[in-house]
Design brief:
The protein has about 170 residues and is α/β, with parallel strands linked by helices. The protein has three helices and eight strands, in the order αββββββαβαβ. The strands form two sheets. Strands 1-8-2-3 form a four-stranded mixed sheet, with helices on one face.
Length: about 170
């Protein structure tokens, strides 16, 4: 039973952020040698000639959270991870999952109001399990925005054309 409550707490803390905030993206020409990302959680700039790979994959954490992740690997010492998290139960489209998601949204809204922190884009790490040396991480609160980011960085890298990608929180 304790495991159930821990799992429920994790789901409530990392709800589908698309419930939390609506975002939009924009893309414009940037410095011709760089891909730039301006995101609610920070910013990232990388030289197009330093990018060695761009990937997207999906995995599940502890059977409860689905992570969709875009990784920009570089020839240097670091890589960038951009990810979207959703409870696995959301895929089931059950009424219970919807009620849990709605209650979690309410709780997160209250926490955000009290602390002034945007809980939908805050990167969550558990030391030492999820802390990786030389990794830059950004949490994206909408899967569509993550896909737009992937398209932007791939296009910029493959065409060697600098781009400035922005996610604007509405």
């Amino acid at each position: 039973m304790k495991k159930f409550y821990i799992s429920l707490a994790a789901i409530l803390l990392i709800l589908p952020s698309s419930i939390m905030a609506q975002e939009s993206t924009s893309e414009e020409s940037g410095s011709r040698r760089f891909w730039q990302a301006n995101l609610p959680g920070g910013s990232y700039v990388v030289s197009l000639s330093s990018i060695s790979s761009v990937s997207k994959h999906t995995y599940v954490i502890d059977g409860h959270l689905k992570v969709i992740e875009v990784v920009v690997d570089t020839l240097g010492n670091s890589l960038a991870r951009f990810y979207y998290i959703t409870p696995v139960s959301e895929d089931a489209n059950s009424a219970i999952a919807g009620k849990i998601a709605e209650r979690g949204k309410e709780l997160l809204d209250k926490v955000g109001e009290r602390t002034g922190i945007n809980t939908s884009t805050m990167v969550a790490k558990q030391y030492p399990t999820t802390t990786h040396s030389k990794t830059v991480e950004f949490r994206i609160s909408d899967e569509g925005d993550l896909n737009a980011l992937l398209t932007s960085v791939r296009k910029a890298w493959m065409n060697a054309k600098g781009t400035k990608f922005t996610i604007i929180e509405e």
